[in-house]
Amino acid sequence: MTITIFTTRLVLAFVLGTLIGAERQVRQKSAGLRTNTLVSIGAAGFVLLGFQIGGDAVGRVASYVVSGIGFLGAGVIMKDGFSIRGLNTAATIWCSASVGSMCGVGLWLEAIVMASLIISAHLLLRPIGRLINKLSFDTETDSLENHYEIIIGCKEQIENEMRVLVLTQLKEDKELQMRSLKSFDNGNPSFSYLKFEVYCIGRKDELLERITQKASLEPGVYEVSWALLAY
Questions:
Q1: CA-to-CA distance for 210 and 229, rounded, in angstroms?
Q2: Handedness of CA 44, 46, 52, 53 (dihedral sign)
Q3: Cβ–Cβ under 8 Å, residues 134 and 230
């Protein structure tokens, strides 16, 4: 293989990987421009190495690329409460590797088609997915993750007591998981506001009502409310 062919295939892998990564970078994903470009170039480079070795090395190297990218993709998958995040990013990395591999074996047209479909999947299927999620929210609310907000206004002296009270209730109700806790005085240091964000699978209005009712009975508490957050 001449250096011209070698360079041309790597450059094509670079260009296509950059196009895929640019869309991911705009969306501020963890695997963006550089990651997808490097994955595409790396896959092409390994396949080209197989060409240089000769024999059945190309097929063996390509199979190793597929399994190796699987480990790389696993690194961006994270569990966040009841949700799994990063699957789309991991799949994009895997697809970028396939584009690079196609460039490496000289399937230039096929690589361009593959890259176009990857970008189209992100751009065209996202609004369709959101529409499906809205339909699912109306018909299958029991299987969706919901986020609630609890706000408690109290005297500054009992702020810690209210923290403990709500956190104890959340610990007892295994269906509710806390996502964040913020405290602010709203300009008056004599009073404190506690804002709890919790999430669960399905609607758990009765649990939120029970927690807020118990908090409202405490001396020094002058405001308690909860709301279902829209995402």
A1: 18
A2: negative
A3: no
Could you read off the pLDDT of 98-124 as tens digits, one per residue?
999 999 999 999 999 999 999 999 888
Q: What is the pLDDT of residues 68-87, one digit of tens each?
A: 887 777 777 765 544 566 78
Q: How far apart are CA 219 and CA 107, in angstroms?
A: 73
> Is this prediction's pTM over 0.85?
no
The C-alpha atoms of residue 54 and residue 227 are separated, in whole angstroms, by: 65
3 state DSSP class of 201: strand
Q: Where are the alpha helices (DSSP H) in the chain?
A: 3-26, 33-53, 57-74, 87-105, 108-139, 159-172, 205-216
Q: For residue 185, give the 3-state DSSP assignment.
A: coil
What CA–CA distance (Å, rounded) separates 100 from 42? 7
Round to whole Å and give the CA distance between 231 and 222. 29
Taking alpha carbons only, the member of 104, 117, 127 closest to residue 20 is 117
- Residue owning tokens 């923290």: 163
Amino acid at 115: A
